[in-house]
Specification:
Elements lengths: L1 E11 H19 L2 H5 L7 H19 L12 E5 L5 E5 L1 H9 L2 E10 L3 E10 L16
Antiparallel strand pairs: 1-5, 2-3, 4-5
Helix pairs in contact: 1-3
Length: about 140
Amino acid sequence: MRIFGHGIDLVEIDRIQRMIDDHSDRFLERCFTPEERFHGEGGRRYAEHIAARFAAKEAAMKALGTGLASGISWTDFSVHAEATGRPRLVVAGEAAKLSWHHEITEWHVSLSHTETMAMASVIAVANKEPTRGLGLAPGNAP
């Protein structure tokens, strides 16, 4: 097993709160799964939870090496809490197809937030060496 990629992202919670205030449903539906939107909804710290999940999505895209390219969408990545409270990254859609192509078998995610900032770190673990950086497009990888 090899580390395929690592991503980290830092988000200002006020920025996410403004997005919620200004674009509410449109922003939340475009970027988050129904389960993510429900988590903490109506709570005093809702923006902190949403910001940490937003950071995790950005970090996951960095770990995969795609950003929002290759048909990847925000909702291809979602963060759920296990019974212990540990965050778990779920990968779907085009991101899941690309992950399968690169033989990514594990995703490790860590979230943290304060009243002003949220951050996430995501590590993708694969069964083979990454082909990124070798000039190979996903469809042309060996």
